[in-house]
């Protein structure tokens, strides 16, 4: 059962926030990760990655709308997690999401910086917690300078590399980093951060756009420098295209670049073309026009809706409403949003669709934050006392086995006919993988 | 042309086989852990990310010049100790790359290494591992038994099926078929881990061995 099917969105945020706080350990928000590229089911400790972008900015938005101090407190607690995780190198501990535990995650560290700086700017604007705001900005600035300027910046191309040794440039990561540098420029008053880093990074996003063909308007996933110039990968992920939109629109406004706004509009049009009447987006659209459908993201659609609204905030059209409906239908009984549908299809299993695959319904902090950030902007504010997080369980499949996923406020367990295959005690850094079938990466 | 960085590429992106092996070790949830420092610093870096308070066992702690870079990269409260610590102190888990384990533990074998579990990571792609005859996993298992350790996990990474998928993926990429590459890549990841005896033919492996009770 879910709120959307009950025709009410009144308690969506309150139920989500109650669940989110069950994912906190002593060092921050943890939990297993499911992703298309890989999984992280064993490491379940605090991940200082893009989940903090949605968590901090979601809580901050709730505070801006309600002025209830506990939302700001929660945003600051999350920001303190990032501060405490900074390594001597300037990077953040466990910042690589599905690759954790590993520092130097992209775009994850830039997403954390963006959240810290936006929080710091808001605190400064309202004259609140000046010590905290200075600390948040200092940590973000140190990360941006030590990691993004010193290690990842490629002056020849004018963009941030994915890793120092390879001239590979990912447009959505450029956009997130550009947003962070624009925020840093605003915090310091130093325009050079915007002009030297954000502007060329956004220009690279522009270069990645398909001009014609079946994927016209799409932004290529990665450009690699070769002897013949930049080589595109031929893949366009609508989710990641959407993550470029807010940065492009911000860049268009700050730099007065109409071409950035045009690029964003064409990219938004590309996304709208891909949305099915049921409100689903394919995972990848190849340059040839071939589509890889699955998994269809659910919680991550929050970033797609946010991206589309950043381009045209006037009204929610049918496309956006269809995506939002899918997102809200993805809220499960315990308040969390499930990750996707159709994970089974990528491994070529016979997938009847009768039951979801385990990774479809896994509640991943670093996906649900995207739903939260978007809905914190659009849904009614939570009211009244905190809600309880009920125990929740469902049937799912994994590699043609029928399993039971059980999640309570204290643990997450996967069973097969009463036999435990996997257990994560919430708050701990490592899960028990009892059956090798769930030993996946 | 690469950007100069004090952290090598394989620190930023450790091989998937190493990640898988060390995650397995971390899930054993040991309290006292020692990692044997060999030539492959990426292995130590990846281990310390999972065991931030581990003891790094080195032949000469005073000359362990990589310490500063490692601390910069992974942070943590880890310490260094000389080789003799392995016979003086009790460790629940001692981790090392195959060549390092053989090189460092062999001289101490007569005195008795006090490790509850020895975790040996074998990677045939690493040059230093060529000191061991092939197939290395067989050699290591034999060597562990001879030194009083009973192997209870011998899992391989990038086994024959995964290698075939990987090769097909590369071929698809050469033909410019990104969609087909993605298919083969998914298949490669699905078949990445193998069990004994297929482990013998895998590119990398983890062998966990428990000390045999006297």
What does this structure look like?
- Chain A is of the alpha+beta class and 441 residues long.
- In chain A, the strands form six sheets. In chain A, strands 13-14-15-16-17 form a five-stranded antiparallel sheet.
- In chain A, α2 packs parallel to α4, α3 crosses α4 and α8 runs antiparallel to α9.
- Chain A starts with 11 loop residues before the first helix and ends in an 8-residue tail after the last strand.
- The relative contact order of chain A is 0.13.
- The N terminus of chain A is likely disordered.
- With 214 residues, chain B is α/β, with parallel strands linked by helices.
- Helix content of chain B is 39%, strand content 22%.
- In chain B, α8 runs antiparallel to α9.
- Chain B is globular and about 55 Å long.
- Chain B starts with 8 loop residues before the first helix and ends with a strand.
- The chains are: A alpha+beta (441), B alpha/beta (214).
- At the A-B interface, β3 and β17 of A face α2, α4 and α9 of B.
Short description:
The complex is a heterodimer of chains A (441) and B (214). By secondary structure, chain A is α+β, with helices and mostly antiparallel strands.
